[in-house]
Design a protein that fits this description.
Elements lengths: L13 H8 L3 E6 L5 E2 L14 E6 L3 E9 L13 E8 L4 E6 L12 E8 L6 E7 L6 E3 L17 E4 L3 H5 L13 E3 L1 H11 L4 H4 L1 H7 L9 H6 L10 E4 L4 E10 L8 E15 L2 E12 L7 E9 L1
Parallel strand pairs: 7-9, 10-12
Antiparallel strand pairs: 1-2, 1-3, 4-5, 4-7, 5-6, 7-8, 11-14, 13-16, 14-15, 15-16
The structure holds zinc ion.
């Protein structure tokens, strides 16, 4: 389940949304003066007549104006793909706010011909109208956020084995560079609710989407920091090495744990890691791994965890 705002059909606009669900684009037309009307209204915006009918149109139109939102307009819209907000002028003359899909920003020009794309945005089958270039082979798209498959336990490139007694080799792993990204994990409302029940932390900012939409500074519910932190276990970070030759390996805790940015419900997260330090201590050989979890597409981490691993 995604936490993105969904269209709320009113008595007046319901035919438009129902039409989209069934593959048809419907606009109101005034029976008195033939003027086309959008957004849906009770009366004609030209002659004020109340005698309006819903009519099916092709949806074809021309790009009136657009902007590329490189910073997400809401945290829910953070993803690898920038949002391209546009106003399309349909051939009937009405203008519609929409987003452009399947086009790179440099392919876009004001005045270009566009065609509609039906985008299914949630599991209930809600459809939004997006637009793309007439030459782009795209009529429909599925934008329902689903949990990606977890990778097989032993996937990825073969790892270099390093004996725990080879301190020089271990110290050579220390780097300022992060690994590649792990697999992605979906943090949806259902998972947040399960964690609320398990931990006893059912504060509304995590569990009440309706209240959070109105009152939360994040515009919706967010995951518990501790939940996102433990999801690290579901993420396989492609490390290039494997430490061998120890009798016992202990998770000794954390040297630093921070939650610098929120994870809105419905986000995909992934993580990356670097070896921050290696030290030989009386209690064993200690490796600190900086494990950072990010919402996919976000520069700023959601979790920074300097994890301490002790090899004995
Ligand atoms: Zn009219």
């Amino acid at each position: 389940m995604s936490n993105k705002p969904m269209p709320l059909a009113t008595a007046i606009s319901a035919p438009f949304w129902d039409g989209l669900k069934h593959g048809r684009i419907l606009l109101q037309q005034c029976n008195a003066c033939q003027h086309w009307i959008f957004y849906p209204r009770r009366h004609c915006s030209s002659c004020l007549s109340h005698d309006l009918s819903w009519k099916q149109v092709s949806g074809a139109g021309t790009l009136y104006t657009y902007t590329v939102a490189r910073v997400p307009t809401l945290p829910e819209f953070a993803s690898a793909e920038p949002q391209i907000l546009a106003v399309v002028e349909l051939d009937e003359g009405v203008r519609m706010n929409t987003t452009l899909v399947g086009l790179d920003p440099e392919q876009i020009e004001v005045g270009m011909r566009l065609k509609p794309v039906r985008a299914t945005v949630n599991a209930d089958g809600a459809v939004l109208l997006r637009y793309t270039g007439v030459d782009v082979p795209l009529e429909e798209r599925d934008e329902v956020v689903r949990a990606p498959e977890a990778p097989a336990a032993e996937s990825g490139p073969p790892k270099r084995k390093i004996d725990v007694k080879d301190i020089d080799a271990l110290k050579a792993l220390v780097t300022g560079e992060f690994s590649d990204w792990s697999n992605q994990v979906l943090v949806d409302q259902e998972l947040i609710n399960q964690f609320a029940e398990l931990s006893g932390d059912s504060y509304w900012i995590h569990t009440d989407p309706e209240r959070a939409r109105k009152e939360s500074p994040f515009g919706g519910t967010i995951a518990h920091g501790a939940l996102v932190q433990v999801l690290m276990s579901r993420m396989q970070v492609p490390l290039s090495f494997e430490v061998t030759g120890f009798t016992n390996m202990v998770n000794y805790g954390s040297e630093r744990l921070r939650f610098p940015s929120p994870v809105p419900a419905g986000s995909l997260v992934h993580s990356r890691t670097r070896v921050k330090s290696v030290e030989v201590l009386p209690r064993g050989t200690q490796m600190v791994l900086e494990c950072n979890i990010h919402v996919v597409g976000q520069e700023r981490p959601a979790v920074i965890n300097d994890l301490v691993i002790l090899y004995m």
